[in-house]
Amino acid sequence: MTVATSKTEEVKTRGNFKEIFTGPYAYDRKAEEEGTKDHPKASYPNYLPTWDHSEKYPPLQPFTHHDRGLQADRSLPDLLNAGLEVEELTPSIGSIIRGVQLSRLNSRGKDQLAFLTAQRKVVVFRDQDFADLPIEEAVEFGAYFGRLHIMNISPCPKGHPQVHLVHRGAGDTSVQNVLAGRTTSVVWHNDVTNEEQPPGTTIMYILDTPKTGGDTLFVDMVEAYNRLSPGFQQRLHGLRALHSGIEQAESQKALGGICRREPVFNEHPVIRTHPVTGDKALYVNPQYTRHIVGYKKEESDALLKFLYDHIAFGADFQTRVKWEKGTVVVFDNRVAGHSPLNDFQGQRRHLARLTPQAERPYETAFADKPREMTNGH
Questions:
Q1: Which of 4, 189, 194, 290 is close enough to 10 for a disulfide, judged by CB 3.0 to 4.6 Å?
Q2: Is the pLDDT of residue 31 over 70?
Q3: Cα angle at 10 between 9 and 11, to 5 degrees?
């Protein structure tokens, strides 16, 4: 019989559910607020995590989502101008933009941001003042793109449950416990796909980052679909998969975490269609997807393993974002999967995420083609 050596050790065998979230037991607020002899204090104390076990929310209700990208001027005049630096990270996914402040965009510019993000899947903005805004203003910016999701298990800045925090404190080496039982910390996923209406245009911004490491990987789920043979694509159409947040919530409870709202599960199409571009994308991930509806376990496991391996091994339709001070990443959760890299030890990594929900995933017929995009970027 093996004796667990830590809370993380106790739950590391529960599954692929972001066990890297260590919960409040590993959090040293004083060290984060004041620093230590080995580490400076947190750069943004107003964004330090809190866990309020008394905070409870009712089940989410369906709502009508209207994607901002649908009304955008596709020449992007309010977002991109002649003085900007635009670098494409790969042909299909990822752009880096310098020379525009997201916080100063008008509504037309935000619409164009949603459109560009739908096209490029991941857009990286450098030299931003976003983290310096009052949290209320950041929340208002995110809410422009849809109803902000409140994550049921994650910490938030005090009084701002719409802000999802990704936080590892300085001196926290608990990732070693996870890696003691796994060969990698990579967990490919789209965010909260267990919800009836998962996220669309998503904003993530850095607060503190390790000197090196802690990058985020992104994968183009449209190109992942396009790489499959027509026959295999056609076979995937019509299939639905069950996505569940129950196991992740139970894992976090074991770590002393919170549960603001009872976790849910929902069925979604294996191939979903983007409402703005018409692109078809794979929509399964090992963190939330449990099985293919109507398939026997062995059949479902075999198909999902193929799709997960296809996504994970597709380095030629992936990109990697290196965080630096002032970086904001806007990505489309419907067509871009991602994974953090926990390849650093004992340094602070602190990010915030605003997660607007979008439409309920739907698919269109196999014969349908994506609509033509007219944009030079």
A1: 4
A2: yes
A3: 95
In this structure, what token pair is assigned to residue 80?
């991109």
Tokens of 17: 């559910």
Q: What is the pTM of this model?
A: 0.93
The tokens for 123 are: 């857009």
* 231 Cβ neighbours under 8 A, 6+ residues apart: none
Helix/strand/coil for 125: strand
Question: What DSSP designation does 189 have?
Answer: B
pLDDT one-digit tens code per residue, 34-55: 999 989 999 999 999 999 999 9
Question: What is residue 2's predicted lDDT score, i.e. its pLDDT?
Answer: 31
Cα–Cα dist 178/285, whole Å: 20
Where are any strands of DSSP class E within 58-215? Answer: 85-88, 95-98, 122-125, 163-168, 201-208
As a whole number of angstroms, the distance between CA 312 and CA 47 comes to 32
- pLDDT band for position 228 (cuts 50, 70, 90): very high
Q: How far apart are CA 16 and CA 198, in angstroms?
A: 19
Instruction: Region of 76 please: left (phi>0), alpha (psi -120 to 50) or beta.
Output: left
Would you say residue 85 has pLDDT above 90? no
- Give the pLDDT mean for 139-163: 97
In the chain, beta strands by DSSP E: 85-88, 95-98, 122-125, 163-168, 201-208, 216-220, 240-244, 265-269, 271-273, 280-282, 289-292, 318-321, 328-332, 336-340, 349-354
The total of other beta-carbon atoms located within 10 Å of residue 199's CB is 25
95-98 sheet: strands from edge to edge? 85-88, 95-98, 122-125, 328-332, 201-208, 349-354, 163-168
Alpha helices, DSSP H only, in 172-320? 175-179, 221-226, 230-236, 246-254, 297-313
